Hints:
With about 100 residues, this protein is α+β, with helices and mostly antiparallel strands. The chain is built from 3 helices and 4 strands.
Amino acid sequence: MKIVKVTYTSKADYAGQNQDNIKKVMTDLRRLDHPGIFYHVCLGADGKTFTHTAFFEQDEYQQVLFDLASFQTFQRELKASGPEVPPAQEFLTLVGSSKPIF
């Protein structure tokens, strides 16, 4: 299993557009219904800090996410917006879960 956490802070005036772009990615992932991908995004109390956590049953499933046009648009537009704090990626190890992920 591969777990990736990405955290960044968008500019306040871009946070709404970023949320819209994330919702498009989520719509595409739900439509795809890939059994080996679990992905969620949370917004911090400041209204502009985003934390993405992606669980991939197999490493190569990450490419499925990267290949989505909506994800490519999300990444391109986020980068162009000039985030206050750029994305920082961290790889995690699952210790336990209240429900099965895969």
